Amino acid sequence: MRNILYIIPIILLGCTAKPHSGIISKPADGQYAQGFTLCRNAEYTEIVIFDPWEEGRIMQKYYLAGNTALIPHDDGIKVKVPLHSLAATSCTHVGFLDAIGETHSLCGICSPYLVYTPIPTVEEGCADLGDAMQVNPERVILTHPDAVMISTYAQGDGVRQYFEKSSIPVIYNNEWTEQSPLARAEWIRLIGAFYDKQDYADSLFREIENEYLTLRNKVEQSVIKKRTLMAGNNFRGTWYMPSGKVYTGQLYRDAGASYFYENDSTNGSIPLTFETVLLNFKDADVWVNSTAQSLDELREMDDKHTWFKAYQTGEVYNFLRRSTKTGANDFWESAVVHPERLLKDLVWTLYPELMPDYEPYYTEKLKQTLSAP
To answer: Computed over its alpha carbons, how large is the radius of gyration of the chain?
Structure first.
């Protein structure tokens, strides 16, 4: 059985300048992402990364320019752009690089077998940096990257602390902490700045935003009776459901689903017993984000899965359409950058009459059993 792997970016490196502890105002109205600000002028671009766990605290500040000698500030990291090589610690970073046509710049990646998007091979100079939870620092140093892209956790990371004196600039990519689909996608603007592709990245994001909002508005205007939705699977006695506050909960709402926890403000997933799930979702019309590839496999995982209406009617879907036998799944790469594709998939599962000619991008409807290879 092939399960969806939740690859959240792991911390790798620090840098010469230590994270700031100053306070700065949050992003201006009109920006979805709350984790960074980006300001441009004729000589340089200033980027501020905020600490996701301490309101208003600056995690890091960057000044980007083709000639760093023109930067009149010393309170952040000066980075010469465009970058020509990058070491990354998560497959989610690859999705952003692919969107701006820069996957060729990868000189190192954690667990390359989990990357769906075509990237340079080890033979072509892209080093295997080890497991995301146990990054190999020596391999990172040997790649001599222009920068390293990492994500941070509230509890900190020993590898990051170990490398705080490194001269390698470290780019904090905390898109995963954002609570809306468009906020996560907007981090493409930050990635684009490091490759001196700000105009292109801004234009791409606006196209994504327009498609997403257009479809969301169409659903709002067209759906009279909402279909009910459930998600996930029973795993060792616990069933995790997203709250209405988080990324996936907002996607369900924007797709026009009636979701039991849509008004729950829990900051994360909600651990539930099977009995609670059965009580609240037994008659749900659609079941999404199953990790099974067929209804038979879903039954074998837990026979009680057959008690749900969605199983009995065959309305069960996974996000494994673009995945490999090694566990790579484009759902964790391009879907972060392109939530409009994922929204289309969800609308198709819920209201196929609104998407009559649509071919799903990430989503598969579970058949009774898998066809013989």
So the answer is: 21
DSSP assignment, residue 148?
Answer: E
Contacts of 134 (CB under 8 A, 6+ apart): none
Q: Is the pLDDT of residue 22 over 70?
A: no
- Residue 164 has what pLDDT? 60
Euclidean distance between CA atoms 354 and 366, whole angstroms: 21
CATH at 290: 3.40.50.1980
User: How far is the C-alpha of 209 from the C-alpha of 43, rounded, in Å?
Assistant: 29
Q: Is the CB of residue 196 less than 8 Å from the CB of residue 54?
A: no
Domain edge (last residue) among 119, 148, 177:
177
Q: Sign (positive/negative) of CA torsion 358, 364, 368, 372?
A: positive
The answer to whether the CB of 99 falls within 8 A of the CB of 188 is yes
Tens of pLDDT, residues 301-312: 999 999 999 999
Tokens of 21: 């502890």
What value does the mean pLDDT take over residues 232-259? 94
Does residue 371 belong to any structural domain of this protein?
no
Give the integer Cα–Cα distance in Å for 9 and 88: 9
Model pTM? 0.90
239 and 167 together in one domain: no
Name the domain count of the chain: 2
**Helix runs in the chain, H state only:** 91-99, 137-143, 158-162, 181-185, 187-194, 198-222, 247-254, 274-281, 295-301, 309-313, 334-337, 339-350
Binned at pLDDT 50, 70 and 90, residue 166 comes out as confident
**pLDDT digit string (tens) for 192-209?**
999 999 999 999 999 999
